[in-house]
Amino acid sequence: MSIAQRLATLGLTLPAPRKPAFGYVPVAVENGLAWVSGQLPWEGEGLLAQGQLGAGIDVDAGRAVARCCLLNGLAVLEQALGSLDRVKRVVKVTGFVSSAPGFYEQPAVVDGASTLLVEIFGEAGRHARSAVGVASLPRNVPVEIEFTAAIG
Predict the structure, then answer these.
(1) Has this prediction a pTM greater than 0.90?
(2) Which residue in 29, 79, 122, 137 has the fewest CB atoms around it within 10 Å?
(3) What is the CATH superfamily name and number for domain 3-17+25-151?
(4) What was the pLDDT predicted at 139?
(5) Cα–Cα separations (whole angstroms), residue 145 to 2, 9, 152
(6) Cα–Cα–Cα angle for 45, 98, 145, nearest 5°?
């Protein structure tokens, strides 16, 4: 089954890829790897959520935001590669979680993106990961996700 078919089976649609607002590329491809720049939770022309985990945003909402970020990342990756079927394996995911003082559940939040990768790519979606709590993120979003994939 192709990745496009798998997405359809899961009831998922990739959003339109967004152009970077600043001086970077959304995906850099070199030596069989594709590095996807940090993705925010854009939904259409707006953001899915703003704020901090532990201060008005709970873990379940944070997981949904992480999934949204990942879908945006897959959209720019597909645009760069021509097809997500070129992904041989997701190698590494880094999730940044805007965290209020006393919030320590960053791994549970970033797991929203991790579990989605496994749903889409199967075993090839299993990856190394970092879940990092930060004081703030661009545009006051609660989560930003970046990842690296091995490609063929």
Answers:
(1) yes
(2) 122
(3) RutC-like (3.30.1330.40)
(4) 97
(5) 24, 24, 23
(6) 60
